[in-house]
User: Fold hydrogenase (acceptor) from Telmatospirillum siberiense.
Amino acid sequence: MNDDILNAIETRLGLSRRSFMQFCAAMAATMGLPKGADAAIANAIASSTRPPVIWLHFQECTGCTESMLRAEHPALDKLILEIISLDYHETLFAGAGHQAEAARKASMAANKGKYVLVVEGAIPMKDGGIYCKVGGHTALDLVKECAADAAAVIAIGSCAAWGGMPSSAPNPTGAVGVDEIIKDKPVVNIPGCPPSPYNFLSTVVHYLTFGKLPELDGKGRPKFAYGRIIHENCERRPHFDAGRFAQEFGDEGHRLGYCLYKLGCKGPETFANCPSILFNDIGSGSWPVGTGHPCIGCSEKGIGFTKPIHSLAEPVYITPPESYARIVEEQGQGITLASGATMAVIGGLAVGAGAKFAANLGKKKPEDSSIGKE
Ligand code: FSX
Ligand code: SF4
Ligand code: F3S
Assistant:
């Protein structure tokens, strides 16, 4: 990058070059981009005008905003406000009432088709949506009005992505996620309660750098962040494989850091990058399982706030069998899963039966399977 751009960044963000380049490298790593992408990101942040953002709050706890602005990294809160132009945000706004409403409408009119709409919180549908109103308008009407001219819609947090906690049974207000309402444009879902600020920021930076949203899975989530189950990257996984489990909180196994599966860990059925990206920039272990609590699947629809916290997870990939079946079946016996898969691998089959067997053994990418879709 040339010196002029870096000088401008230093002045504008009040960040050293080193910190800024470290941030760009972290964004590139979060998105799984190849070497050199950090320079493209740096250029985009330095030279793009900040995209205007309208941020709506509905049924939620404001934890998404808190996680974004209270991140321990000294520069993150500043960077967020420097990368985007937060034109409307009810928690952070100094103004209130008609003044705030006027600012939202003015930004939407001035940036028609160019602003990013971020929604935090679920939308109640029951009884005409009367259970959540802002400025006399229902959440339902507001989300429709604000999405109409948005360039992109981001549903931040599990509440906005699929209903989250407000939609827990018996879901008294009929709470749903944004994509149940906005059907004419893609909605990027960034679930988690709260989600990692880096997953949100990386999505925005991707949009700035490449002029388009990142690739999404069947549930509208960026693949770079939700492409793998937590269980695949968990530091306790060797204990799971070896059969060493904590049986109850505070027992010997728990103190030794054994696997939390038997305490209800939902890592085997939850897609998220929590163990690799961690939280709050404080180093290893700073995620739920790292602190000794089972993952409750807060980011996964149908798991978090739905399944009892201490019930056993159903691993989404079939665990390989403990012993292998015969390769050559006796006539008329058919084919077993293990022998079929072994033959498929030996034969180098990539499609048809080979792919099917591979999928059953967990070798198929989640975005191609029905598991990641509703
Ligand atoms: Fe709270 Fe956000 Fe949870 Fe929901 O995060 S942390 S209840 S996902 O919408 O504010
Ligand atoms: Fe980690 Fe949970 Fe999987 Fe155990 S069950 S390895 S604690 S994700
Ligand atoms: Fe939530 Fe589980 Fe990650 S509880 S924060 S999805 S480890």
Q: What stands out?
A: The chain has two domains: 48-225, 228-327. Confidence is low (pLDDT under 50) at residues 332-374. Residues 192, 230, 270, 272, 274, 287-289, 295-299 surround FE3-S4 cluster (ligand 3) (CB under 6 Å). The longest strand covers residues 52-57.
